[in-house]
């Protein structure tokens, strides 16, 4: 232990943000423990590291008694006063000891402890940095793919994208730059585990916030998002200022804003819908790009019957029911879509049934 070591601790404190005094206190405790272990001493040991020179003083602590029964833990008053003339019965004498090879042992233990504390501090710093960025977009570089997990270099650590968070059809090539959604930060024995996603609806939300100033400043609010990653997303927006067009703001001049987001999502289709507190209007808009003729709602069941022109039926339902499914998720309503002809036939059947019931009652 020497002055260079103290200078190294100063450097660690400055670069790593680790309190030097806390580190020295921990080193002193570790060295005391190492001394007892290596020398089998029953003494109470006191270690002191000089903050300037790095010199280590080792003292055995002994109770000052009138009659010594255990010379390992006790010392007589006369012997104690040879060390310090003001000692009295009942005091604890500090007796300097200089064990052989102690400097080497001390240095080894100190080095191990410093390395351990630095690792712990770095892990905590990384954890604190990333925990504050949960639910945000972060940039990284794809490192490798292992057991279907994608590992992404995030600078001081790496993120893990599990198979469930990967978009089907996207290629995750090594060394490729990528934007991901920071899903969760976990503390583990090996350091923080950073889980990221490309499928989470939050990724779309954050992309709109970065591309649309009106969303970023709060003029336009994202009310709801439903997403089937890699295929289609529906996003409902509302303007707090009546003079602002929320859909137009998101689309941007010549469609540039939404196109930037589509490009980032590798061609994923995005339907931007104007949110409304009128459920009929909101449900009709949610089925875009289909045109809706009529919406009948059941407040009790929170369900809706939507009528569209015959030629619009397949568009309203979407491929494999996707458009209707996303609309239902966006609005929170159960949606049943019928063509105009189907609705008319249903009405005719219902009318005939009602007439039959009337006849039976007569």
The number of helical segments is 12
Would you list the SSEs in sequence order as H and E? HHEEEHEHEEEEEHHEEHHEHEEHHEH
**What is the topology, as strand order, of the major beta sheet?**
5-6-7-9-8
What best-fitting shape do the alpha-carbon axes yield? elongated
As a whole number of angstroms, the C-alpha radius of gyration is: 36 Å
CATH superfamily of the largest domain: NusA, N-terminal domain
Main sheet specs? 5 strands, mixed, barrel
Question: How many distinct domains?
Answer: 4
CATH first level of the largest domain: Alpha Beta
Q: Name the assembly state.
A: single chain
Which structural class fits the helix and strand makeup?
Answer: alpha/beta
Poorly predicted segments: none
| Beta-strand fraction estimate | 25-35%
* Fraction of residues in H or I helices: 40-55%
Domain S1 motif: 135-199
Protein name: Transcription termination/antitermination protein NusA
Keywords: Cytoplasm, RNA-binding, Transcription, Transcription antitermination, Transcription regulation, Transcription termination
Main location: cytoplasm
List the helices and strands and how they pair.
Layout: H1 3-16, H2 20-39, E1 44-49, E2 56-65, E3 74-76, H3 77-83, E4 92-96, H4 102-131, E5 137-146, E6 149-153, E7 158-161, E8 177-188, E9 191-197, H5 201-211, H6 213-216, E10 220-228, E11 232-239, H7 246-251, H8 256-264, E12 269-274, H9 279-286, E13 292-298, E14 303-308, H10 313-317, H11 322-331, E15 334-339, H12 340-361
Parallel strand pairs: 2-3, 7-9, 11-12, 14-15
Antiparallel strand pairs: 1-2, 2-4, 5-6, 5-8, 6-7, 8-9, 10-11, 13-14
Helix pairs in contact: 2-4, 5-8, 9-11
């Amino acid at each position: 232990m020497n002055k260079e070591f103290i200078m190294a601790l100063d450097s660690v404190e400055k670069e790593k943000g680790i309190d030097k005094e806390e580190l020295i206190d921990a080193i002193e405790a570790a060295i005391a423990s190492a001394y007892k272990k290596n020398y089998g001493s029953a003494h109470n040991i006191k270690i002191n590291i000089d903050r300037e020179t790095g010199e280590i003083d080792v003292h055995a602590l002994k109770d000052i008694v009138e009659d010594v029964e255990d010379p390992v833990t006790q010392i007589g008053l006369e012997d104690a006063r040879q060390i310090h003339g003001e000692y009295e019965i009942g005091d604890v004498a500090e007796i300097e000891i200089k064990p052989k090879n102690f400097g080497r042992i001390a240095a080894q233990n100190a080095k191990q402890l410093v390395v351990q504390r630095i690792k712990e501090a770095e892990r905590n710093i990384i954890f604190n940095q990333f925990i504050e960025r949960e639910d945000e977009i972060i940039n990284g570089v794809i490192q490798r793919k292992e057991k279907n997990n994608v590992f992404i270099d995030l600078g001081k650590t790496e993120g893990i994208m599990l198979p469930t968070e990967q978009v089907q059809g996207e290629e995750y090539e090594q060394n490729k730059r990528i934007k991901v959604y920071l899903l969760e930060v976990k503390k583990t024995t090996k350091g923080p585990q950073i889980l990221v996603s490309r499928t989470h609806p939050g990724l779309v939300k954050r992309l709109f916030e970065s591309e649309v100033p009106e969303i970023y400043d709060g003029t336009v609010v994202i009310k709801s998002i439903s997403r089937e990653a890699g295929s289609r997303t529906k996003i409902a927006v509302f303007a707090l200022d009546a003079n602002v067009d929320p859909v137009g703001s998101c689309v941007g001049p010549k469609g540039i804003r939404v196109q930037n987001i589509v490009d980032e999502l590798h061609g994923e289709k995005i339907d931007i819908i104007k949110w409304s507190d009128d459920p009929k209007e909101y449900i009709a808009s949610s089925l875009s790009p289909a045109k809706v003729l009529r919406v009948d709602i059941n407040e009790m069941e929170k369900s809706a019957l939507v009528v569209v022109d015959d030629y619009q039926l397949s568009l309203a339902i979407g491929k494999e029911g996707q458009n209707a499914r996303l609309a239902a998720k966006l609005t929170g309503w159960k949606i049943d879509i019928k063509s105009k002809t189907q609705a008319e036939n249903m009405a005719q059947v219902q009318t005939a049934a009602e007439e039959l019931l009337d006849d039976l009652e007569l």
